[in-house]
Amino acid sequence: MSEVEIRRAGHADAERVGALAERAYRQGGWADERYSKLLLDARSRIEEATVFVAVADGVMLGTVTVARPGSRFASLARAGEAEVRMLAVDDAARGRGVGSLLMDACEGLARDEGSAAVVLCTEPDMYAAHRLYQRRGYARQPERDWDWRPGRPLLQVYRLEL
User: Fold this and answer.
1) Which residues contact 42 (CB under 8 A, 6 or more apart)?
2) What's the first-to-final CA gap in the chain, in angstroms?
3) What's the predicted TM-score (pTM) here?
4) Domains, the chain
5) pLDDT confidence of residue 150
6) Of 124, 126, 125, whose CA–CA distance to 142 is shortest?
7) How far apart are CA 23 and CA 59, in angstroms?
8) How does DSSP assign 6-67, residue by residue?
9) Among 79, 129, 134, 159, which residue has the least CB neighbours within 10 Å?
10) Non-local CB neighbours of 12 within 8 Å, separated by 6+ positions
11) Residues of the chain with pLDDT under 50
């Protein structure tokens, strides 16, 4: 495959973005019926947040959303923080650094917009994501962990000072 391009998603990408995100989360066991609907609705994310995609040879390899505090897609961002949501890499593209390239774009956008930090949350068993975030210097924020689905483990919060 050729070089991976990271770009902002447009409306024409919405269906593929939603399908990729929902598939990745469902395969990992992290998407119930309610969350699947949110993942599939990439059009709303593209309109109300910033969505990046990773593409090579016309194939979408990954996607991620950056939400601002107070917006519909921000679950935990406070003033001065950008929130990373719904990072998803297609199974066939794992191990190629796609997640890291998408995180570069998120962190760059946050810096450009004057954010002091980037925050995100993960499921406790998203081990590959935990390794990615820790390698990038994200620190756990256990005091900010939260439970949006009763009966499931708390979502784990990470934060990177910019």
Assistant:
1) 9, 13, 14, 15, 17, 18, 21, 51, 63
2) 32
3) 0.93
4) 5-161 (3.40.630.30)
5) 65
6) 124
7) 15
8) EEE--GGGHHHHHHHHHHHHHHHT---HHHHHHHH-HHHHHHHSEEEEEEETTEEEEEEEEE
9) 79
10) none
11) none
